[in-house]
Amino acid sequence: MLVICQGLELSEGFLRVSKAISNKITNPILEGIKIVAEDDTLIMSATDTELSIEKKIKAEVKVEGETVVPGRFITEFVKKLTNSQIELEVNEKNQLIIRYEDSESIIQCYNPVEYPGFKKISTKEYFGIGKKDFKTAVNKTIFSVALDDSRPILKGVLFDINKNELNVVALDGYRLAKVKKTINCDIQKSIVVPSRSLSELSKLIDDSDEIINIYIDDYTIMVDLGDTKVTSRLLEGDYINYKQIIPANYETFVIINKEQFEQALERATLLSRISTNNFVKFDIKENNLCITSNSELGNVKENLPVNVSGKDLVISFNPRYFLESLRVNTNEFVKICFNRPSSPCVIVPTEEDEFLYLILPVRVIG
Question: How many of the other CB atoms lie within 10 Å of CB of 327?
């Protein structure tokens, strides 16, 4: 293999595909990035067998060929050569010779025959969605996935596709996040995508309104971004019926300024963190929300003006679950819907019904 390319494009390519290299390496070759030179293109790809990323750049290919280079090393090395023209040559010892300016370096490579193939999608089913809408749906739900391995299916995000409506859902047993988006689609299907795959995919997509097509089958999801393809395996198993969890009716409604509420919770959280009782109490009555937090160090009491309709209520929550939802909420005001002290509350925007957050309360004894 002998190829010439621009350092900046090569560096950006390696940086992009390196996101698919796992931090937990069980097979040494998975630490590598495969490079293939053909026609007038250099193709870089990496995989951890769950997530795969492929990137193509223009190059002057003098001799076609392929190899697998040490991924993290080559990414960091080429990052220092963004202003240079780079020549890459693979010799008979499967060593990569990197020539730049008046210098050269040699790196021992892996056998490309041993590298896993790039996942292929086996269907033409797809849905179209705007890049901005996709990023929003992922970023407003992904923080609610489960982090432990007790229920592996909950470590992914549900994409519930019903023709032109997409519901994106994540839950961990304590809270649930749901975002609804309009899509271009004529299929009905539910899939669960690993949260890591979605996190890396979201970073590769800009905030434009450009429509991207997302291809799916029973085992795989693939997003084609033109010169970049991202493929991920899907999680197998039955997802929780999220529709049954969301209450149909409520007894108390609170409308509150999002920024004031977030700041008050952050102050109260400072104290609850050092307490064995990691919760804050909400006392709702007469257009006032009183947030209290107690520990051996002292107590915090925050009173906030709110618009209340319905019954008075005293209820306790883990404040982190509220804060994480508020941080991705861009509305000036939010509406919080309550029932009994033992029932979950729901947070929705005051101006639209695109997203919803459900949080279970903490049961306080005494």
Answer: 12
